[in-house]
Amino acid sequence: METSTFVYDGDCAFCSRCAEFIERRIPTGARVLPWQFADLAALGLTEAECEEAVQWVGADGSRASGPDAIARLLGDSAPLWRFAGAGLRLPPVRAAAWPAYRWVARNRHRLPGGTAACSLPQEARERLYGPTGRPTTGS
To answer: Is 91 inside a domain boundary?
Structure first.
């Protein structure tokens, strides 16, 4: 792999907004893409891992998830963002970041930009909305 990859949940409006912020404001050489369009096998990831948290797969094959993945993304960026990523890796900050991340993940459908579909597992989203994200009609 030549480029690091940051993978997020593209079916979640809140997650997509965060990814858009990354793409607009955080200069990084990493690919930022929804897991639904990623070659998970090539990245060594599973759907379950991607549903649980954002994922980082470094160009060197290193992996991280949740706030650790965010810290890696920031560490692969411009100096100010690298400083923020280093701060996120400090043990007391990291210890607080995981519970905060889990709270956000559980409540992302309630956050700005979130939708009710954000709170559902992928299987339920596909059953209700189909693989394209559009509501399915009864047969």
So the answer is: yes
Task: For the sheet with 31-34, list strands across it.
Answer: 31-34, 5-8, 55-57, 63-65
The H or E element containing residue 64 is strand 63-65
- Asked if residue 137 is part of any domain, the answer here is no
- In this structure, is residue 136 part of a structural domain? no
Question: Ramachandran region of residue 44, left (φ > 0), alpha (ψ -120 to 50) or beta?
Answer: left
Select from 120, 118, 78, 74 the least CA-distant residue to 97: 74
Contact 71, 89 (CB under 8 A): yes
Task: Tell me whether residue 139 is in a domain.
Answer: no
**Range(s) of the domain holding residue 111:** 5-129
Query: Helices 79-89 and 66-75 sit at what angle, rounded to 10 degrees?
Result: 150
Residue 135 carries which DSSP code? P
Query: Which one is predicted more confidently, 102 or 118?
Result: 102
- Say if residues 54 and 104 touch (Cβ distance below 8 Å): no
Q: What is the pLDDT of residues 53-102, one digit of tens each?
A: 999 999 999 999 999 999 999 999 999 999 999 999 999 999 999 999 99
Q: How many domains does the chain have?
A: 1
